[in-house]
Structure formats: structure tokens, C-alpha cells
Design brief:
Helix content is about 35%, strand content about 35%. The protein is α+β, with helices and mostly antiparallel strands and about 100 residues long. The protein has one domain: Alpha-Beta Plaits (2-Layer Sandwich), CATH 3.30.70.100.
Length: about 100
């Protein structure tokens, strides 16, 4: 299998973890309906630090481009980012 993997680690603002989780899950469910989205997993890692992690797998760069051009895409990301104290994004290729 090949594809593009994107891992996003969100650090929620104090008191915003539940709302952030709700929004990230809704976004992931929407993405799963798109052609070219092969996987969307949301999880909360164990540990003391509150975090939410999103693991994405896309077929190729074209699928990502279509995804980013969806109406409301940028606004949806802005709303999610406003609930975060920090965010780390990693991107790579499945070998």
C-alpha cells in the first residue's frame, strides 16, 4: 500500500478538550466520505498531557488537493485551531 500519511497532534486549550474532540471527529467522518480518503482515525493518547491525535491516510496528492478545495475546508480548520493551545503536524509517505 502507498499513500500520504498526515498525523496531527492537537493540544486543547484548558476546558476545550471535549469540544475539540467533537469537532475533530466530525471532520474525520466527513473526510471519510471523500474519494481518496483511505483512513481517518481519532484517538486520545494515554498520559497526563491532554492531547487528541488524528491519523489520516490519503490515496495521493490529487485526493488531498480535492479535499482542500472543499467548501468550508479552511473555516473548519480555523474553528478547530481556535480550540487549541498548540498543534503539531507530521506528513510522510507510506513505504
Amino acid at each position: 500500500m502507498s499513500g500520504i500519511v498526515i498525523i496531527v497532534e492537537y493540544e486543547p486549550l484548558s476546558g476545550q478538550k471535549d469540544e475539540l474532540l467533537l469537532r475533530v471527529r466530525a471532520s474525520a467522518e466527513q473526510c471519510l466520505r471523500e474519494d481518496g480518503c483511505l483512513r481517518m482515525e481519532v484517538f486520545v493518547p494515554e498520559g497526563d498531557k491532554p492531547r487528541i491525535v488524528l491519523s489520516e491516510l490519503w490515496r495521493d496528492e490529487d485526493a488531498l488537493k480535492v479535499h482542500r478545495e472543499q467548501p468550508g475546508h479552511d473555516r473548519q480548520h480555523t474553528v478547530i485551531d481556535e480550540l487549541c493551545r498548540g498543534k503539531r503536524v507530521s506528513r510522510g509517505t507510506v513505504l
